[in-house]
Amino acid sequence: MDKFNLYAAQMLSFNEHFADKGHNACKGCGIALSARQVYKALENICQDIEKAEWQIPWQQEETVGSKSDNSKLSLLTIKKESGDTLQICFDNECSDKKIDNSDLIKRQPAIAAASGCNYAATASPSHPFDLIDKIRSAYKSAGSAFVQILCPCPVVWDFDTENTVRLARMAVEARVFPLYEISAGYYRISAQENNPRTVNDYLSRQGRFSGWKKKKIEALQEKVNNFYDSLIEKSNKGL
Amino acid sequence: MSNKNFKQENVGCYLLETDNAQPYKPGTKPELRPVWDKDLCARCALCYIYCPDAAISRQEDGYFDIDINKCKGCGICHRECWFGAISMQEVN
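^ Those are the sequences you sent over. The predicted structure of the assembly is below.
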């Protein structure tokens, strides 16, 4: 975050639409944090945000186009004025099955774009103004839209509650969760990391990867590098 | 409400209506709460945007403070403050 972004929060309205009387989530909840930022993005644009298809006990639904059929994620569906839908996936990586290499690399926006979404993006609560921009442009774009948000979970990921935002930022910095958007078929990387952290640095802060061997982590590092290279290639080509 | 145990809750602690954290009064439990040092605070509102519980609100003088009934003491504001103006202390 640079010096100009630091004071950008002053430009937001200080009215509270999300859970103005409190909610019952765990402390340091990543989903609550990102849901609040989503509500903040839409509060002046979307008139009936309170009628969006969830209430604070978050509905568990299956994702559209997800690679694995078993994974269940919270999904918020908002109807736009044009009749199309904006789907926001709050991904805390807590699926039923054992976590694997390929679960950490997010291809859902590409799948959504391939299956007819006009706008698809990834966002992270550690970059709140980027997230707010993406939600607003997803809401304003023609056609249906899909946004995937990484939500660290202190209980399952096994870390201290104060590190929720820090780990979300580290996932971006280690290129495990690159921030990019696909608008009308064109790729754009919104937060370029020129000096990335190692994947091991990101994984070693979480208890859930304590059983992982060195070989597995190196394989993941290679996969992450390949995926980021392909993203850069696509964004340079203007595809 | 405070005498309710988990057997009397719904299955999976699933909540049927919103705004029901207030009867539990999370601020009264023995945890650390953020305290602002007004000399260091630059009023940048980063703590406001990073609070998951919507507990931080802007005061009339432009500084920020918590609602003790909503804060759960996660410490994100303490960790993310650029100026080190927030410390976690026991508040009565």
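The longest strand of chain A covers residues 72-79. Chain A is about 35% helix and 15% strand.

Shout if you want it in another format.
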